[in-house]
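Retro notes
What went well: the complex prediction finally ran end to end.
Inputs used:
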Amino acid sequence: MELYRSELSQHFVDTFIKKMEFTEEEFNYTVSFFKRQYVPRKFFYLKAGQIAMQKAYINKGSTRTFTMDEKGREHILNFSFEDWWLADFESYHTGKPGTKYIQAVEDCELLCISKEALEKLEIEIPKLKALFEMKQKKMIFSTMERLNEVKTLTAEERYLNLIKKHPQIFQRIPLQYIASYLDIEPQSLSRLRKRLSTK
Amino acid sequence: MELYRSELSQHFVDTFIKKMEFTEEEFNYTVSFFKRQYVPRKFFYLKAGQIAMQKAYINKGSTRTFTMDEKGREHILNFSFEDWWLADFESYHTGKPGTKYIQAVEDCELLCISKEALEKLEIEIPKLKALFEMKQKKMIFSTMERLNEVKTLTAEERYLNLIKKHPQIFQRIPLQYIASYLDIEPQSLSRLRKRLSTK
DNA sequence: AAACGGACTTAACCCGGGTTAAGAAATTTA
DNA sequence: TAAATTTCTTAACCCGGGTTAAGTCCGTTT
């Protein structure tokens, strides 16, 4: 089933047309490889052990990406929202089974493109390759920043940082998930919030 | 001053000749852009605030890369040894002043190539671009793994993990730096080691 | 309206790592 | 070789977050 222009978010269109200066032909051709996929709240887009065979643009909704340790505990690495690209980066690029779970926090509408198609397109349209190379660089920056944050800041500082940088998250993501993202237990987040509210 | 073949480590030569299948001409041409740079123990290859204008191949020696927080505390992100490529990745790619300090732990002999020259070479020799794209991907994998490690493991587990994965580090890096890498104080590492030795 | 289940909070206790301070060991310098 | 400096260890005390266990709140179901 074909994707109609009216079903694409403005941001999606702008990314290709304005930012990457795609022609109408290039854009339509690119779009023809995308397929829509719905992932209802709490359902998984990907699970550890599976191989990431596609990249997904989040047209609507939000997800959490997490790993599970030997004791069965979840550790949220990041949340993703509209206009983000979604994949288990390592699995996608190595072609090996991944280590990450990607679960919808809100009902998601994704626009997916297979690795096969994308690799073909990246050769045909170098601008597309440049786009994803740029995304890749930004991903390294943000992962490094996250690592440095975890190393340098206390739980309280990480919490205040999150409020400052991404206040919208608190409107859409349950506190228990935010706690996991901050590397503390829900009870500790609760205690921390109380401590902050009284001073 | 020119670099002679005999001064290049076998690994450096192999990377280009065997792994990337450079011709002798391509290799010699590439090498002609490299300059040797010595960084004695405790001296800095790069400091926060400076712009990374080059990449360095470590021909000999070891370094530590760290950030400094507002309280003046150092947080070591990683160590680098022979045959690694060295740079403040973010500063190199954004062209903006960096946030990282890179200091020689042992006397270092580096083979450096300017960003300008490398960008030119990457166009002339696509194989070279592919090499650094691959390095970049591996860097993302390892940074993500580090992040996940910091989130999932206790200090003791991170210590045991380091012994298992990189036992050589303990021969070359002072314990105080290893403590910083593990995100604990030197005293805590000492206590932890004692705890482990008695059981 | 009552019952249920999930999300969030509260509290008591415990423990690992931070902090501070001192001393021992190793390495560098004189 | 001695002195000085740096690195590593030990110990006592403290505190933040984990753990366990209830309890509250709220939306959904029956």
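What we learned: The CA atoms of residues 157 and 177 of chain A lie 17 Å apart.
What to try next: split runs per interface for comparison.
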